[in-house]
Input
Amino acid sequence: MQNIKILIFNLILIMAANTSQAQTIGNYANVNGLKMYYEIYGTGEPLVLLHGGGSTIYTTFGRILPELAKTHKVIAIELQAHGHTGDRDTPESFEQDANDVATLLKQLNIAKADIFGFSNGGQTAIQMGIKHPDVVRKLIIASAFYKRDGVAFDGFWEGFDHATLNNMPKIYQDEYLKITNSPEGLLRMFNRDVERMKGFKDWTDEDIKSITAPALVVSGDHDVATPEHTVKMSRLLPHGRLAITPGTHGSYMGEIMSLDTNSKVPELFVAMINEFLAGAVGENK
Output
């Protein structure tokens, strides 16, 4: 009987410890007229994750988020009209997304954070570095471009003039509908993403040069942006670092469209960004 009591007592202690370490998941905040969804995992220096267009936290970061949470306090955000986050009667823009992220961080009492953006989230990260430098410690700009001529594919821009929902990968559609069960919301998100890309305006070289935060620019060697464009952006950044990995759009981080689900490259990628983020700010170039 005494042994059973000790066992029960130990189980209670373990449960209490686990409860105290439990992660905050599924939060909403009222941000600039938007009901914004975010999840928090882990402890340590804050690291903000910004997903790609048409995506969610899970479809972009599902493979690497658990690893990142081992060393950081991860704040994973879903942006306007995406995933769990609501919409408002305004077009999407990278400027508005950046404003929303900065406002959310202020509400969370996070004075400064590392910002990791993938694809369209990478463009939002660029805008954070330009317009909200006070809240950015370091940037990871992944699979993004800053000029229209930086894309690798002929007809890329013209394709948005004739885009329909059928062009959106079904796995993205299914994930959105799993969350919202709203075909109307799915179409609205798709149309907002298309209109934003149709109206994409270049950042100037001077804009990129104005980013003072240390920044790691990452791309696959068969990505949406050309390797040459990625190199140029990294060279323009005053404290830029560069990583071009074998692979396609996000395959190096295990984005949900990646073909090789058994690849070990995402693990190497996490190790690389952990080293970049752990280095003293002055170390980066």
Notes: The longest helix spans residues 2-20.
